[in-house]
Design goal:
The complex is a heterotetramer, with 2 copies of chain A and 2 copies of chain B. Chain A is mostly helical. Chain A has helices at about 10-25, 30-40, 45-60, 65-80, 85-100, 110-125, 135-150, 155-175, 200-215; strands at about 10, 105. A two-stranded antiparallel ribbon of chain A has the order 1-2. Chain A is globular and about 45 Å long. Chain B folds into 2 domains: about 10-135, 3-Layer(aba) Sandwich (Rossmann fold), CATH 3.40.50; about 185-325, Hypothetical Protein Tm841, Chain: A,domain 3. Chain B has a 6-stranded mixed sheet with strand order 1-2-4-3-5-6, sandwiched between helices. In chain B, strand 10 (about 255-260), helix 7 and strand 11 form a beta-alpha-beta unit. Classes of the chains: A mainly alpha, B alpha/beta. Chains in contact: A-B, B-C, C-D. The complex binds adenosine-5'-diphosphate (2 copies) and magnesium ion (MG) (4 copies). One magnesium ion binds near residues 41, 43 and 184 of chain D. One adenosine-5'-diphosphate sits at the interface of chains A and B. Chains B, C: One of its GO terms (molecular function) is phosphoenolpyruvate-glycerone phosphotransferase activity.
């Protein structure tokens, strides 16, 4: 099997997911940059697109053969090409996810929850953001919780990722009324209110792409 | 977007090539990963000083590489902190066996990427210590923000930290001097116009013809408040008022006064503002014993300025006066 | 009009006060009439070099006053040549008994005012000789115009003429060197945006978002033609193409390449353009043995650049490399 | 008599004329600057206004008692305060005019023609401009010619200055279709066509002010 399916996902499936993520990020590059211009420095879309373009190039040069190795490739590529706050944070997330599923040749729903949780924990460990600080954590934490609930309820891979994606999107939208307390947007104080956090938004797009790929799998 | 460029995605690379050609006597530019080292480095037995950050702040940081200045600088993409592999490579290239100081400006991205690089350098048995500057009084320093930004104060901080390393101080001593500068420098900035990041193509914010942005950062982030454009004297009073009150600076203090242009401000305005700043400080009995006026830490073509004040003691003054031979700052050589 | 000023009519005076306070170690600023002299001058027995022109071109000319640089500079109102009484006073203050060279940029106003001042100085038994620079290839040199303008080439011309005086050349020798620079330097400029003279309050011209002005002068005069904004490589080819063809510069020539910002151009763009210029010259076998990149002769906040090329021989190179200690240019001291 | 009259003009009359010129220049400052922005560097109005403001201050401090001395005061003040091309040119004009009428205590129509002619010749000597170079000479020379004709025809002071002013104004307007060959506007080549020369315009205003004062004299 070379695609994610409903009960588990192998290395090729993870690659397909990452390719979809790259496409989504490219598609939303301008929007992410615009969001970052409102409350940051206007580079988030460009940073993420640069990173995932590099990831695609690496994958084209040779696809690793375990899910963990794919995630590690993504991690190291993002760390060395994205820069800014998002580079080390997403890099750490993928690195921790990779480590968390090190032995698995395919990822079942529980493994996906494990990977997501480890990724979120990595972001929190590096960035020290709490919920409602108006960061990507506000998309990641609802996503992790929803994924766990879906997996515990017996959901398949697609169901788990769908739950994660939906709640990430809600989490991203819910950053709008918040005042930023971490990252560049925090400099704005109350003026950060009324804008959606770019990092939370890219997290939501990323999970949406993974969910969509999983749903399309046979 | 009006810029003298070929392609928004290759601006930094092409400019680095220009730097390499224009300053071959002072610096060596490395590519993939990108970093800049002293042409005569590494200096064995000297503590090496490495800094960096997003591009678009030129001459920061490559313009300060050279004897009496930085040993290496790491340019990220425009307004984006560099990546750990760049910082690691620069750290390795600069290391002269006496340890390396990372001078990090306080932005989440810079902190995280330099942290990762330091861990990686540690694994290579390079003794790295980081010093972080957060001199921007426009930002509230509290557990509820990412902390104050590192802004104009970075220029005297670079100069003095590097001079301590150049005179032969060991790693701990250099770090101690560097932290003393951080403890004694404060800055606040303002903008008349925004700037446009090349790959974005859109101004970072918009300001009406009669508006200015007070408390601006150096990345085109919007500032603390938007107000009507006032006179130079009033602008200076707003910026320096916050600066003086914060440390606080007091009657009889000896200081370095630094009026910095944001890239698009003509120097006639900077000198005019400097004059207003001197009057402001004279009224408060604060002595200005050293000065710097010019575009030393910029935000692309942004029009505006920042004012930094550094409380000087004899040692900091001596280190400020010490020789330096870099593209952007040169004296005594 | 967005400027950090108090009152359009006092901009020059207030900026001069700032210069005096910021650079008290290098220069003395005189008022009524306004001029700037070396703090350690006049130097007895040395040929004195005096220049000046309208303000708004900072660091021209006051930023080049000091050891190895000018003995005096005379700032006019913004974009208006100084008056004869200013020039006379500066000439008298600079005179060290070995004669005075007036370095005059070719504009009708500057020529006329310096001419009058030279007559007045003559009446005071000061031996004054004027050298005029007219390096701007954008202007047709014919009896049907006021002749070519003096633009960016003035910077290496200042440096080299002053170095000849500093090494002890007599008046005739200094004048000969100075004329050799004029004969060997050519410049052309362009602008992305206009600038606004403070007392006028209106931009000197308007350019659409996709337009640039080729062959611009340094006073906000409109240029030779208005075209669509193109790439840095194409702009450089247009400017340098005219420059190289004019002298002409030839394969094997050693040159100084000077990419000058008009005041509002960030240095990342200047270094990018410098890189493009190096490629252009390399293709033609023209060697670049000395370089200068930065905002050295500006038009207030105008965005744009000029490119100058000076054909070097060994003596001009040595004089370019000689020490100078001024606010805007410093090396070897 | 303290004002210009119809047959001659004493020092006080010249002072009255110069004060009127200063007022006119101040009134047209923005327009002169705008004209100079089109084909020059946008400072002519400011330059002239700075000069005549200084002249007023000097006159307030003490009025000289011969026409020649008044003209000399104007000359030296313009030379030391105006700068640019206009400063030495107008300065020379007033200086030569002053010298030309050195001995006279009052200026009759022929003396006025002599002064105007000397002034124009001074401008030409300094600036080397020929007719139709699109400079102040294009206003001065028609003015001189008209003044001479009026004086030769027996016209009084007012008639002479009126003739000069009218032809100066026509001369200034006639600079519009010309291509500049002197001064800053010459850099523009053919692009200088279609704009009125600022210096010719200030000359016309200056003579208009003098004529108006003479006409109002009893
Ligand atoms: N301390 C943090 N913890 C978690 N996420 C953060 C933190 N700081 C910033 N972020 C996220 O990073 C995003 C900005 O990323 P990006 O624009 O690429 O980097 P930079 O802010 O350095 O320009 C923010 O929108 C936010 O979601
Ligand atoms: N060579 C010249 N002869 C006569 N008049 C001249 C000459 N050059 C310039 N002018 C006049 O000077 C006017 C410009 O004056 P002004 O703007 O004050 O000086 P600048 O050109 O130095 O800025 C022109 O409009 C023109 O009438
Ligand atoms: Mg950002
Ligand atoms: Mg950034
Ligand atoms: Mg002028
Ligand atoms: Mg003019």
């Amino acid at each position: 099997m070379s695609e994610a399916d409903r009960t588990s996902c192998d290395a090729a499936g993870v690659v397909a997911g990452i390719r979809a993520v790259a496409a989504t990020i490219a598609e939303h590059k301008v929007e992410l940059t615009r969001l970052d211009r409102d409350i940051g420095d206007g580079d988030h879309g460009e940073n993420m697109a640069r990173g995932f373009t590099a990831v695609l190039a690496k994958l084209d040069a040779g696809e690793p053969d375990t899910p963990s190795a794919v995630l590690k490739l993504v991690a190291s590529t993002l760390i060395s090409t994205v820069g800014g706050a998002a580079g080390p944070l997403y890099g750490t997330a993928f690195l921790r996810a990779s480590t968390a599923v090190k032995e698995a040749t395919t990822l079942d729903p529980q493994a996906i929850v494990t990977a997501l949780t480890a990724g979120r924990d990595g972001v929190v460990a590096r960035g020290k953001a709490e919920l409602e600080d108006k960061t990507m954590v506000d998309a990641l934490t609802p996503a992790v919780n929803a994924a766990r609930a879906a997996a515990d309820a017996g959901g398949d891979v697609a169901a788990v990722l769908r739950a994660a994606a939906n709640d990430a999107a809600m989490g991203a939208a819910a950053t709008i009324p918040l005042q930023a307390r971490k990252g560049r947007a925090s400099y704005l104080g109350a003026r950060s209110i009324g804008h959606q956090d770019p990092g939370a938004t890219s997290t939501a797009y990323l999970l949406e792409a993974l969910a969509a790929v999983a749903e399309k799998a046979p | 977007m009006k810029k003298i460029i070929n392609d928004p995605t290759t601006v930094v690379t092409e400019a680095l090539k220009g730097v390499a050609l224009a300053h071959a006597d002072l610096v060596t530019v490395h590519h993939d990963p990108d970093f800049i080292t002293r042409a005569d480095g590494p200096i064995q037995g000297k503590v090496a000083i490495v800094s960096g950050g997003g591009s678009g702040h030129e001459p920061l940081a490559g313009g300060y590489v050279g004897p009496g200045g930085l040993d290496a600088a790491v340019p990220g993409a425009v307004f984006t902190s560099p990546t750990p592999d760049q910082i690691l490579a620069a750290t390795q290239a600069a290391d002269g066996g006496a340890g390396v100081v990372h001078l990090v400006l306080n932005y989440t991205g810079d902190i995280l990427n330099f942290e990762t690089a330091a861990e990686l350098a540690d694994a290579e048995d390079i003794n790295v210590q980081a010093v972080v500057i957060d001199d921007d009084v426009a930002v509230k320093d509290s557990t509820w923000t990412a902390g104050r930004r590192g802004v104009g104060g970075a220029i005297p901080w670079y100069k003095i930290t590097c001079a301590a390393a150049a005179r032969g101080d060991d790693l701990d001593a250099v770090v101690a001097i560097s932290k003393r500068v951080v403890a004694n420098v404060r800055t606040m900035g303002m903008a008349l116009t925004p700037c446009t990041v090349p790959h974005s193509g859109e101004p970072s914010f918009t300001l009406a013809e009669d508006e200015m942005e007070i408390g601006i950062g150096v990345h085109g982030e919007p500032g603390r408040e938007r107000t009507k454009l006032t006179s130079a004297n009033e602008i200076v009073a707003t910026l320096l008022g916050s600066v003086v009150e914060d440390l606080p600076f007091e009657r009889g203090d000896n200081t370095l006064l630094f009026v910095n242009g944001m890239g698009g401000t003509p120097s006639i305005e900077l000198y005019l503002a400097y004059n207003a700043a001197r009057e402001f400080l004279a009224e408060r009995g604060i002595e200005v014993t050293r000065s710097l006026v010019g575009n030393y830490f910029t935000s692309l073509e942004m029009q505006g300025m920042s004012i930094s004040l550094l409380k000087l003691d004899d040692e900091l003054t001596e280190l400020w006066d010490a020789p330096i031979n870099t593209a952007a700052m040169r004296r005594g050589v």
